[in-house]
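Dear colleagues,

As part of the handover before I leave the project, I'm documenting each prediction I ran so the next person doesn't have to rerun anything. This entry is a single chain, and its sequence is reproduced below.
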Amino acid sequence: MKDSNKRKIQELVTACRETGELGLVSCSSGNMSCRCDDGLAAMSASGSWLGRINEEAIATCRIDSGEVVGELKPTVEAGFHLGILKSQPNVNVVLHFQSPFATAIACCEKIERNFNCIIEVPVYIGEPAVVDFYMPGSDALAAAVIEAMKTHQMVILRNHGQVTVGRDFDEAIQRAVFFELACKILTLQKDCKPLSVEAVEQLAKLNKA
């Protein structure tokens, strides 16, 4: 394995553990992947605990074909990880997380929230997409997430969790943290006043800069 890919795997391990420290994942929930050299992707293995993962629990797959390189089975959600990396060359990291408040909102019967309650949402995230419930690991879920992520940077999976992306680990984790904060405010502050439409429009320009 190339030294550059070994470094990527080490960075992935560090980032996965950080998601646990930040409360974005619990136990074996959530998964994370990153783009490597030679058309490969590294991702957390099936059943691994991100908060205490090590290099022995990182699987490798070919982005184009999905072929597993080695004996370790990747996360059950490898389909949408690889599909996003394949269809979006500017995305280098995919994070599926299940933080408490964001997941609580994902379980609501109606998800009609204005998430623009803090400036970080329009600046770093934009409007999240909502995907109906599909069985974890299914082709239907993968297809829905891949399609939604073409025009969004955050996808809410009903009764399941969230998916976000980034050019690097920091960007993906930051989006997850800020989205969790917004969901916490919306859950605890029943009369939350969102930002004005004008403010959101101006802040959104920073996202695209």
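The helical segments are 3-21, 78-87, 100-106, 120-125, 139-148, 169-188, 197-208. The chain has one domain: 3-208.

All the best with the project,
I.
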